[in-house]
Amino acid sequence: MAWIKIPCILYAMAGFQIAVTPPHPPPPEAEQISWALVEILLKQRSGPFLVKVFCFVHAFRYAKKESQSLCWAAALSEILVIFASYLPECALSRVILDVLVHEGSNGIVWVSPLFVTGIVLTAVGAGIRYWCYCELGNLFTFEVSIRNDHRLVQSGPYDAVRHPGYTGIILAVSGVFCFSFAPGSWIQECGVLDTLVGRCAVMLQTGIVAFIICGLILRTNAEDKLLEKHFGDEWVNWSARVPYKLIPVTCPICSNRVESHNINAHIDQGCRDVSAEREFTSQSKPKLSSQSSDTSDVGHRKKIAPIFNSKSKPAMASQSSALMTPTALKRKTQEAVPKSVGDPPAKRSKTTLQDAAPLAEKLRPVIFKDFVGHHHVVDLIRNGFAGSVILWGPSGCGKTTLARLIATQTDAVFKELSATTASINDVRAIVDAAKSTLALTAKKTVLFFDENRGELMRDGPLNLEQDIFLPSLEKGYIQLIGATTENPSFKLNGALLSRCRVFALDRLQDRDIQNIVTQSLDRLSRDAGSSHGLADKVVETIVRMSSGDARVAISLVEIALKVPEDCDEAKTIALIRRSAATNYDTAEDHYNLISALHKSIRGSQADAALYWLARMLTGGDDPVYICRRLVVCASEDIGLADNHALPLATATLTACQHVGMPECRINLAHLVVYLSKAPKSTVSYEAYKKAEAAALEHPTLAVPLAVRNAPTGLMESIGYGEGYRYNPDYAHPVTNTYLPPELEARPFLRKDGEMAGKMWDEAALVAWETKKTTESSGREDSRRIYSGPVAATDPKVVGVGLDRPAERFAPPTILKHLKRLSTIACALEQHLLHLRKFVYRLDGDNIRFGLNKDLGFDEKSRVENIRRIGEVSKLFTDASCITPTAFISPYRADRAMARDLHEKASLAFIEVFIDAPISVVEQRDPKGLYKKARAGEIKDFTGISAPYEAPENPEIHIKTDESDVQESVRIIMEYLTTHGFIQM
C-alpha cells in the first residue's frame, strides 16, 4: 500500500507550493509599510516583548525558502524510496536505497493515520489560501502594504475570520510537517534520525516551522492596527461582526459569535455581549478619522479592553436565568445576599474528589524516586521493560502504585478497571478502543486491572473469559498490568500466564515502612507549611503494627497526628495499638500458616508450632479447620510411635466443636505441644502410599482363593477359601497366601530399624547439632525426636569407643571440626534409638561444657580427660545403656586405661578405629587448623607435630575413604548383633 503515498505526497506538495508562493508581485516600495511604523504601533499596543519579536519578522523570506527546500527534499526522497522498493532488481533502485536508507533501518515506508491527517491539513490549508487569493486579487501580496486602490474585503473567507490567509498557511505548513515526520515516513523508517546530518536538518525544520507559525500569529496584530488606521469605522464594524482572527468560535449555549479570549466571560455572564458593554472615555484613544467624536467613541466603545470597564454594571432585567451557568447563578446569588459586618469570611468548600480521598491516596508516589522497596522490579522497569506484568503480593506492598508508575514510563493511553465493578463488556470496550487508538495515533493502551484481593481469579464471569485478553496481548494492542493478592499460578489459565511476567512482591521491610512514614511526615509538613513530627517510639510502634502494609502505616500516622494535644506518648501508642487491625489474608496466609504449623510439629519444634497456632487464631481462622489438620498430623507424622496422639486429636476436635473460641485455644495448645513432643513415625503412612502405588499399577490382580469369602456351597465347590489356615486354631504361627503372586516379594511396611531410602546429609546433621549445642539442649532433643519405649540391654554391654588421628585441638563446641568422627557416632546413636535401644552418646559438646571444662590440652589434662570419660562411660554402661563415645585419644596407654576400667567391672569395651588419611582429614578441616599447624602456629598438633599411636587390635576398623557414614553404621551394627551385644 506504500505506492498510494506517491500521488498523495505530490498532491499535498503542490498545495503547499501554492500556499507559500506569492500570487502577485510585491507592491511598489512607496505603497509598502515600513517595519519601523509597525514596531511603533506594536509598541503602543503590546509593549516591548512584541517589539523584540517582530524585529525578526524580516527573516520570514529566508525561513520560507529554507522550509520549502527541506520539505521538497523529504518528499522527493520518500517518493524515490517507494519506487526503489517496488523495483528492487533495478540497479538504480539499489543505488537509491544505498544512498537514502541508512544501514540498520528497516527501510519500509507505510501509511499511518498521522500521514493521512497531514495530507488533509495541507489540502485544506492550500484550499483556504487559494480562496483568499481569489477574493483579494492583486491586493494579496506577501508584504504588509496599503495600496492606492486598497479596499476592505469582507466577503468569502473574510466573512468568517479576519485573517484566513494566515489560517491557510499555518494549516499547510503544519500538514507538511505532520506527514513528513509521521510513523511510516522516510524520515522515521529509513534511519534519517540515526545520522547527525538528519537530526540537525530535522531540528532546523522544526525551528523554522515554529518560527513561522508564531510570527504569523503575532503579525495579525500589526495588520489589524494598519487596517483600523486606514479604514476607521468600516474596519470597526467589520471587526465587530467578525471578531475572530484565525478560527471562528461560537458560543455552545446561545450560538452567537464570540471572540476566543472572551468566551469564558461571555458564558459566565449569562451569554451577554461582553464587548458591547465595555465603557471607556473618548480620550482613551486618538481619533483615526475626521468623523465625529460620537461615531469614533462608538467604535472605541466596542474595542476597549475589559480592564477599563466601569465598576457599576447595568441591570439585565431581560436576562433569562435559564441561560445562566451555575457559576454565574452562584455569583448572582452571593451578590444578592447581604453580609453582616460580624460574619466570618467565606471559606473555600473542599468537596472535590481529591479532598475526599484518604491520606494514603493523597500521598501515593507519582515518580519512581519516591517509591520505596522492591528495587529489583523498579530497576527492571527503569531499564525499559514494557511487557505485560502481574504484580502479586500482599495488601499495602505497593502494587497499585507501581502499576501506575509503569504506565507513566510509556507514551500510552492509560485505562484502569477494578474487578469489583468491571464486567466483560467493560473489558471488550477497552480492547476495541485500544485497537482504534493504535490505528489512529499509533499509541498502545495500558490496561491496569486491580483485582482487589483476587476477584478476577475467583469463579465468575471474568474468570471464564480470561482468553479475551489473549489476542490483544499477542498483537500488542494493550499492555496488561494486573495486581492481585492471590497466587496467579492457581487461578490464571496457562495461556494468559505465559504472556505475562509475574513479579512476586514481598511485604515491605520495617526499614521501608519507616522510610514511608518519614516521607509522609515531610510531605505533610511541606503542604501545611508547618512541622509535623512524631516521637521515635510512636514511629516504632507504627512500623511494628503495620506489619509491612504501607497503607496501614499511613493510616496510623494520620491517627497519631490527630490525637488531642493533651495525649502523652504512652496514650498515643495505646491508641495506635487499639486502632491497628490484624492483617490476615484468609487466602495466602491461611495456607502458609497451616503449613508452617504442620511442619513445626513434624520437626518437634513446640515453640514454633505454638506461634503459628497463635497467629492463625488471632487472625480469625477457624479452630475446627486447624484441629482437623492436626487429626491428620497425628496419624501422618506421629503414627505408630505414639498411639495416644490420634485419640487426643479427635478429642480436641470435639472440644473445639462444642466449646468454641476463645476457650478452645487451650485445647488446641495442649494438642499442639503433645504432638510436637511426641515421637515421630511415618511407617504406616509410607506403607499405605506404597500399597496405593501398587494398586494403581495392578488394579485387576485376582484375590487368592485361600483368602476369598465362601458363604455358599457353590463358592466352596469352586475353591473359594480352600487351604486357608485359621490362625487362632493353631498353637504356633502359620502362614497363608495373602497377596497375589505378583506382589508377594514386594513389601510395603518398613521393618523396625530399616534405613533404606533415608537420606544422610552430614552438613544438615552438623548444622542441627551446632544449633542444639548453642541452645545447650542438643542431647535432650536428640532423644525427643527418636524416643519411645526402650529395651534394656544386658549389663555386660557395651562401652563403644571411637577414635582416629583427627583435629585434636579443635574447639569441642564447634562440631564440624570433628566432622566424620562425631557424625558416625551420632548416626549410630540415632539408629539405635530407632531400634528402641537405651543409648546415650558422649562427645565433646556434652563433656567439654561441664565435666571437663576445667581441663586444657597439656599431656596431664589429656590423660585426665580420657580417665573421666572412661569413668562416666562405665557408669552409663553399668546402667544398661549403650554408650558410644567420640573422642580423640592419640595414645594407646590412655585407651588401655579406659578399657581396663570397663573390663574390671565385667563390662564390654569395643574399640572402633575410624581410620582417615591425613590428606582426607585436612580436606575436612574448615577451620584451617591443619594449615596453621603445618605453618608452625599450633604446636604439638596430633598427626602433624605430635605422634598418633594407632590401635593395634581394635574390634572394628573402618576406613572412611572406603565407607560412607551409612556403611560405617552398618559395619558397627553387624558386629554388635553378631557378637550378641544387641538383640534384634
From TrEMBL:
Compartment annotation: Endoplasmic reticulum membrane; Membrane
GO biological process, one term: DNA synthesis involved in DNA repair
Membrane topology: Multi-pass membrane protein
Enzyme kind, highest EC tier: transferase
CDD domains: AAA, APSK, HLD_clamp_RarA
Signal sequence region: 1-19
Gene3D superfamilies assigned: 1.10.8.60, 1.20.120.1630, 1.20.272.10, DNA polymerase III clamp loader subunits, C-terminal domain, P-loop containing nucleotide triphosphate hydrolases
GO molecular function (one): adenylylsulfate kinase activity
Single GO cellular component term: nucleus
UniProt keyword annotations, A-Z: ATP-binding, DNA damage, DNA repair, Endoplasmic reticulum, Membrane, Metal-binding, Methyltransferase, Nucleotide-binding, S-adenosyl-L-methionine, Signal, Transferase, Transmembrane, Transmembrane helix, Zinc, Zinc-finger
Residue ranges, compositional bias (Low complexity): 281-296
Region ranges (Disordered): 278-300, 329-352
The EC number(s) this enzyme carries: 2.1.1.100
Principal subcellular localization: endoplasmic reticulum
DNA-binding keyword on record: no
Keyword Phosphoprotein set for record: no
Cited Pfam families: AAA (PF00004), AAA_assoc_2 (PF16193), APS_kinase (PF01583), ICMT (PF04140), MgsA_C (PF12002)
Annotated ranges, domain AAA+ ATPase: 385-508
Domain UBZ4-type span(s) in chain numbering: 248-272
Transmembrane segments: 108-132, 165-184, 196-218
Catalytic activity: [protein]-C-terminal S-[(2E,6E)-farnesyl]-L-cysteine + S-adenosyl-L-methionine = [protein]-C-terminal S-[(2E,6E)-farnesyl]-L-cysteine methyl ester + S-adenosyl-L-homocysteine
NCBIfam families cross-referenced by the UniProt entry: apsK, PRK03846.1
Family (UniProt): Belongs to the class VI-like SAM-binding methyltransferase superfamily. Isoprenylcysteine carboxyl methyltransferase family. Belongs to the AAA ATPase family. RarA/MGS1/WRNIP1 subfamily.
Protein name as it appears in the record: Protein-S-isoprenylcysteine O-methyltransferase
Species of origin: Mycena citricolor
